[in-house]
Amino acid sequence: FPLGQAAHESELVAEDTIEYADVDKRYQQSTFASHFVEVGVNGFTGEVRIRRMLAVCSAGRILNPKTARNQVIGAMTMGAGAALMEELAVDTRRGFFVNHDLAGYEVPVHADIPHQDVIFLDEVDPLSSPMKAKGVGELGLCGVAAAIANAVYNATGVRVRDYPITLDKHLAHLPRMS
């Protein structure tokens, strides 16, 4: 009977599966990305500002370049927040989160992220899936905070190993400005 009639009379459900056999056991199925970040650090105040960010990604066939790029850029912004400002403060005496809402929990805004770029390497992975595509979900996030920490180290000579990289963790160790 017609599809309209089937949908009208009861719930319409469609299910399917994709069989990969043992491809994931014989071949590496990962996606890969490298992140590059340029920061400026004020020599007097220690304030860290991101100047530009770049992600170079290998993710098989990109089915929709615009949405894939936007997903990676959004994740890069999340990584910047994790590296420089997002910190969960806990009152250990009373056992509650002090900054439990956006009034006290800092997240990046547009002015914190001036320039981002994403490059997808042109490749097709014939073994990854029937569409020869992979996911890009984690590519923009994994590695961003480390790239920012390395850029801060490169600019100041101060290695901070505890996120977020806040003034109290590196200001006293900055080289003296003359």
Q: What can you tell me about this protein's structure?
A:
The protein is of the alpha+beta class and 178 residues long. It has a single domain (23-173), classed as Aldehyde oxidase/xanthine dehydrogenase, molybdopterin binding domain (Aldehyde Oxidoreductase, domain 4, 2-Layer Sandwich), CATH 3.30.365.10. The chain has 5 helices and 5 strands, in the order ααββαβββαα. The strands form 2 sheets. The protein has a 3-stranded mixed sheet with strand order 1-2-5. Helix 3 packs across helix 4 (144-156). It is extended, with a radius of gyration of 22 Å.
How are the SSEs ordered, and which strands pair?
Blueprint: H1 3-9, H2 23-26, E1 32-41, E2 48-58, H3 65-84, E3 90-91, E4 96-97, E5 116-120, H4 144-156, H5 167-170
Parallel strand pairs: 2-5
Antiparallel strand pairs: 1-2, 3-4
In short:
This protein is an alpha+beta fold and 178 residues long.
Summary tags:
three-stranded mixed beta sheet; extended; alpha+beta; two-stranded antiparallel ribbon
- How much β-strand is present in the residues? 15-25%
Unreliable segments (pLDDT under 50, ≥5 consecutive)? none
Rg calculated over all Cα atoms: 22 Å
How would you characterize the largest beta sheet? 3 strands, mixed
- Identify the CATH class: Alpha Beta
